[in-house]
Write a structure and sequence with these properties.
mainly alpha; 2 domains; about 60% helix; about 120 residues
Length: about 120
Amino acid sequence: MKIDYTKGVCTYAYPDLQPQRTRDNLHDKFIEAITNHIVCDQWSPYYEINQILYKALMGKHKVLLGGMPEVLLRQIIGNSLGLEDVKDMFKYVLEQIATAKVPLTMQSATTQYFSHIV
């Protein structure tokens, strides 16, 4: 008796659960369906969130997309970082913008260098 794990909650990404040909055939269709019906050109500015979303959905996991109001996020950051820490971060971002070879905005530079905070 052979158990078919592809009918359960396992992932399509595991190479031992589906034949290579089936997996390769479905991969692009899944990516296209996720992009068209879930993301709908509203990408997160954080690369990690986009990557986790695709991996979770490709893995047949249940995903809840939620957001945090920016005011609450600012309060959390304000309560967890000292003034000197924020000054150091600001100086670091300004230095990175000054030495960048391509134009960077304050928001994109902050997201790139401090994505774990902002």
